[in-house]
Amino acid sequence: METNESTSPIGEEVIPSGLETKTVDAEPNSSGAPDIRALNERIGKASQFVDLLRMEMSKTIIGQSDMVDKLLIGLLGNGHVLLEGVPGLAKTLAIKSLSDSVQAQFSRIQFTPDLLPADLIGTMIYNQREESFKVKKGPIFSNFVLADEINRAPAKVQSALLEAMQERQVTIGPETFELPDPFLVLATQNPVEQEGTYPLPEAQVDRFLLKVVIGYPTKEEEQQIVRANLQPGGMRTPQAVVKPKDIMSARQLVREIYLDEKIERYIIELVFATRQPENHGLGHLEQLISFGASPRASIGLGIASKAHAFLHHRGYVTPEDVRAVAMDVMRHRIGLTFEAEAENISQEQIITEIMDHVQVP
To answer: Given pLDDT bands bounded at 50, 70 and 90, which one contains residue 312?
Structure first.
């Protein structure tokens, strides 16, 4: 995405923020607004590794560019990602490819009905020789944790992830252990199968920054997929091109990306339209929404918009960044009433109508 910048003879820069044409001096002004030109240069240089990650993931993931970008937004925004789609759409492969591209620890946990919380976080084991208990850490102590088919395990196992996902720590017995940094839970679930599955509780779902719904590839992409899988030697393997410290540095830069006050108000209006639709000229939605998006949605929209701008090598957020991530940030944070389910109205339809009605700055 191009920035479409223009420069005046006296060294001032016009910022196309999607709000109003705004001039920012080369030095920070009294309101604390940053030097956008310098910030753009810093972000442009620091975000080059994103193209390397995309290139490595493209060795195994053909098409599905939106899914790849949303995984990168979760990585850069320090948020967890839930992928939902029918079997065979490379959900697990995409997550594995991302972990292969980053030189970090990776654990895969296959969620099954007989799984126990201790199988995730670890447990206390008695050592007869030393006559004491020792902690045996579980597979959750990794940088990337793939919770494969997370809805196949019962609620007590799903709840074992709550503390880890929110506080980035795990309590085993009397001790609390910090999880490695970066720490990212990437979960998959199959929406088709109902038998032997356990829907994720709202408190669990709300801890995911993004819920990405994956569709089928196009005919051309599927032809490339078949060709790549049938070639001699099989699919290529991604190489590690980024280190964890690069991810940590990028996360700090993402938070420095400029978010204008008008964009902040736009985010708040979108979220409040899910709670009080009647105040936004959407009174008919009141009978369809049982509960609106939580404050985590507002925070998530802000950080995901900044990460989206980072992916496009920009130092400021536009309304298009917000709209690009709004569906994935809010679709799992809105509850539907029985009336909505009876009329087959989805969260996606509600969010689309809200984005069409809330005025874009």
So the answer is: very high
